[in-house]
Design brief:
Hypothetical Protein Pfu-838710-001; alpha+beta; 8-stranded antiparallel β-barrel
Length: about 260
């Protein structure tokens, strides 16, 4: 098991994912986004985020071989650097892993690369690195982008009916992957714990959603990074074409194929 970088504080991420399997996924997105409650909980704090995520690794897969994910996230004009590791699947269909996310700065990026003990890689020619650009700085350290995606995320806080304390977060995501200009879209619902007892809330919200929408919502044990890697594999092999619709949205059959190769 990989040793976590000691200079950073890792928290525990607990989440569960439901894919939206529908011929009209945007309609399901609208219906879920319009909900004011789910089961025993209220949905409040309505907001929409536009996220751009780029993942990195070395050419010889130093990070993925150690089950480490390294990401730069842009949220509006803010940049964040994120590491996730030690994924563990639960019996109830969720995922638990260690996560660290901090505001990006050149100094933070330098510390992350140092703590990860990434083997020396030839850097970019002098004068080519723009340290104010998070992606270019990581590239100068020998890290290469391995996946890029953009997400429109509709966020709802999950609270008790009589309380304001946030127990969990419900995210309704429209995800657009970019594979060298080939765009592929999928839709999913993500519920993440935001409190000490949030795991039970995540389980309850997931159970209520599946009870209401039935097979339209499918539990999915793979994160967006792994799912994207699977899509890229199908794209390279030529198997993806019959698994997407005219608008390049994944069809339900695509997830059966992805589940077999992931």
């Amino acid at each position: 098991m990989v040793k976590l970088p000691q200079a950073f504080g890792f928290g525990r991420e607990i989440e569960s994912i439901l894919l939206i399997l529908s011929d009209h996924p945007e309609e399901i997105v609208r219906k879920i986004a319009a909900k004011k409650s789910i089961g025993d909980y209220r949905l409040v704090g309505e907001k929409t985020k536009f996220l751009a995520d780029t993942y990195f690794d070395t050419p010889n897969h130093f990070l993925s071989d150690r089950k480490l994910n390294l990401r730069i996230r842009t949220d509006s004009r803010d940049h964040w650097i994120t590491m996730k590791t030690h994924p563990r699947r639960t019996l109830w269909g969720g995922t638990v892993r260690a996560e660290m996310e901090v505001p990006w700065s050149p100094e933070t990026a330098e510390r992350v690369v140092s703590e990860l003990k990434i083997p020396y890689q030839p850097s970019s020619p002098a004068g080519q690195t723009t340290t104010s650009d998070p992606i270019e700085l990581l590239k100068s350290k020998g890290l290469a982008p391995i996946q890029h995606r953009e997400t429109q995320r509709q966020v709802r806080d999950v609270t008790l009916p009589e309380g304001s304390h946030v127990l969990a977060e419900l995210d309704i995501d429209s995800v657009l992957y970019d594979f060298d200009g080939q765009k592929i879209r999928l839709f999913e619902v993500e519920v993440e714990s935001k409190s000490e007892k949030g795991q039970n809330v995540v389980k309850s919200v997931i159970r209520s959603l599946k009870g209401e929408y039935g097979p339209i919502l499918r539990s999915w044990r793979h994160g967006k990074l792994a799912t994207g890697k699977g899509i890229a594999k199908l794209l390279r092999s030529g198997e993806l074409r019959p698994l997407i619709d005219a608008e390049n949205r994944l069809l339900p059959a695509a997830y059966d194929r992805l589940n077999r190769i992931l």
